[in-house]
Amino acid sequence: MTATTQATVARGTPPTTPIRKRGIASRTPRAFYWMVLPAFVLFFLLHTVPVLQGVFYSFTDSPGYGPYEFVGFANYQALFTDPRVIHAYLFTFQFAIVATVLVNVIALAVAVALNSRIKFRTTLRAVYFIPYVLAVLVVGYVFQYLFSISIPAMAQALGNERFSTSILSDESLAWIAIVVLAVWQAAAFNIVLYLAGLQTVPHELYEAASLDGAGAWRQFRSITFPMIWGFFVINMVLALKGFLQVFDHIVAMTGGGPGTATESVGLLIYKGGFQGGEFGYQLANAVVFMIVIIVFALVQFRVLQREDTSA
Amino acid sequence: MSAETQTPGRTNWWLTGLMIFLSLSILVPLYLVVVTALKTPDQLTGAGFDLPSPVTFGNFGEAWRLTDFPRSALNSALITVGAVTLTLLTNSMVAYAIARNMHKKLFKGLFYYFIAALFVPFPILMLTVAKLTAQLNLDNQVGLVLLYVVFGLSFNVFVFVAYIHSIPRELEEAAIVDGANTWTVFWKVIFPLLRPMNATVGIITCVWAWNDFMLPLIILSDPRAATLPLQQYVFQSQFSTNFTVAFASYLLAMVPLLLVYVLAQRWVISGVTRGAIK
Q1: Domain total for chain A?
Q2: Is 1.10.3720.10 the CATH number for B69-277?
Q3: N or C: which end of chain A has fewer CB within 10 A?
């Protein structure tokens, strides 16, 4: 009531509006500054300063303590010819892209199924969401047992040669086990995000479509998917950004092995920076990594948004 | 139950069956944890999916003592409660100041400054923040709480600001006319109205702080400060062959949050959903 009256008054008497506005803007209560100041100081100290320090040390040969010297771009040059670094990037890209696509496809399919005419929806939704509340590291140890003991034992019982040894000790297959863990754990959260997206699609559209004789797949392609496109874009970008930084999964399942077959960029920076005396060098790696992640996010937004306008 | 969101029509039993079958992919690993934790090492044969007979509970006692469960659980609980409480009290306030002054360059700039950090990957500050917290004597539980509160700002300010924009200003103006200052307006008028968003941010922060492994790994220097996931990591090498005790300790680490989830499951899911729509 009050709102409408005020709005009408304001619209009815245009000359007073600018004065009122300026009046408010010119006296921002000082309290607002005190509300953000401590947060800004702490954020700057604990987030921005470490980032800037990281960039600074990336131009030095610092081992993380004691004296150091400036080496210019030497660290950056060395990165591009370091096979361990190149391998870490290739592994991380491969893992992150496959995991991102799988998580989104599976989560969207499960969300659509959970949103359709099935029984026990509430219970099933609760079950599919369980992995979200479990620690990746702890679940990772369980999956390590599954892959290194349970599955080989089952394969042996079935007489299957290929899987009777653990895939975690196979250089070319270990990454698949990590993808399985990542998808298992991350799908939960994405299912709920997609369910939230599906709630925003009006029912009338489906009713009209089924009157026109559109089948389930046709309804999904022509109504559901276009309507939740925004959720799809955000989920893809966030999932890829998260998976590129994969760490816990690998610590739990392979520790980066066998050899360095499943060493991600995050794990390499951690190992080299804390234990390998490569503080400055790994910080150069981290700077490159940051640029890569930002570029990935921008490209993804671009491509997925263009897709939207063409659809 | 949730009839209002259900599409009218006949139940799809074929799909119901498929979804129940697929939910086994979630339940089977959890089942494995429970049965393994209840076995003795010599009952552990083959794939490990058979039921324990007889059931043994001794693994829990051993895991409890070996990993110093009460201490690490208490550390995790204190850190989580501290992070959630401080996050809700401070991050909502920062968001309120930003949301109500978005027309000012300073506040708008601050908003984008916080949001931009969402795209800064953690490895770039991992090495230096560990050094910094050690220099500031923050390589302990207090420092960890502080880091969760500060690092959460980016995402939390984003969702809080969106939510505060939907609160009509008339309520605040009425309170100001009644003589309330900005602080009183925030605590007495706005903060109570933020309850749904506080639930969302609270749940997300709680799950993050409780399950996080990376920050405790690089920040905490005193082994007695270890959280549950960090303690699991430290003891993993000692478990190498002692699977039944290891699984008992996994179960102990999983149970607290799982219990909270089972009790407040509807509330948790709707809280996360709300965050997604905003």
Answers
A1: 2
A2: yes
A3: N
